[in-house]
Design brief:
Elements (H helix, E strand, L loop, with lengths): L3 E3 L6 E3 L28 E2 L5 E2 L3 H65 L16 E2 L3 E2 H10 L8 E5 L10 E10 L2 H6 L6 E10 L3
Antiparallel strand pairs: 1-2, 3-4, 5-6, 7-8, 8-9
Helix pairs in contact: 1-2
């Protein structure tokens, strides 16, 4: 059995071998590397033997910086949202106005085309004539029958719609021309909200056909 020796200031015996033994106490390894004893904030160590702090106090210290960074990022996100959101809303409303204008313009074009077709088949020789000489015609550019027909196809168009019906050849005989046009003021939503409706455009459409009867 090999003899044992004791280090100064320690109670742990170690065997004496043939190599020179240089015991190193825990105090000689530098600050922060003392052997953890018992329970407490330094009761655990990592793979290198460096004590790792444990406990609620240390957890709060470690999470303090991360929490501050997270709060800072959240505040920055709120500021960026406050700056971008109004522009995004304006863009969305602007796209809505453009889409509404295109839809109304297409509807108006369809209504005017139907009005001119009505005048084509209701010439001077038809059973219910339109144009010059007819009871529904009021010079110089109003025919109540064609106007009512156009309005029946102008779904969604405001009541400010104006319809004009003219016969460039001066009569509604077969082979003569009929021109039906319509227009109305269009006011975007942004103009209604910010300018009180002071800015708008006029949407209009026209159709020309030749009377068949």
């Amino acid at each position: 059995m090999k003899p044992f020796a004791r280090d100064a200031g320690t109670e742990t015996p170690y065997p004496i071998t043939g190599r020179a033994h240089c015991p190193t106490s825990w105090a000689e390894r530098g600050p922060g590397t003392e052997r953890p004893r018992g329970r407490g904030p330094w009761a655990r160590s990592d793979a290198r033997g460096v004590p790792v702090p444990q406990g609620r106090g240390f957890a709060r210290r470690e999470g303090f910086g991360a929490g501050s960074a997270l709060a800072k990022q959240q505040g920055q996100a709120l500021v960026e949202t406050a700056l971008v959101l109004p522009l995004l809303l304006l863009l969305i409303v602007g796209l809505f106005d453009v889409g509404r204008a295109i839809w109304l313009s297409n509807t108006l074009a369809t209504a005017v085309r139907e009005g001119s077709r009505y005048g084509v088949v209701h010439g001077a020789l038809s059973g219910s004539p339109t144009g010059p000489g007819a009871a529904s015609y009021t010079p110089p550019d109003t025919d109540t029958a064609i106007t009512a027909w156009v309005r029946s196809y102008a779904t969604g168009v405001p009541d400010t719609l104006t319809v004009r019906s003219t016969w460039p050849d001066g009569n509604a005989n077969r082979g003569s021309r009929i021109v039906v046009s319509a227009s109305f003021p269009f006011t975007p939503v942004l103009s209604q909200v910010f300018l009180g409706g002071g800015l708008g455009i006029t949407l209009q459409s026209s159709s020309t056909l030749v009377i068949e009867q």
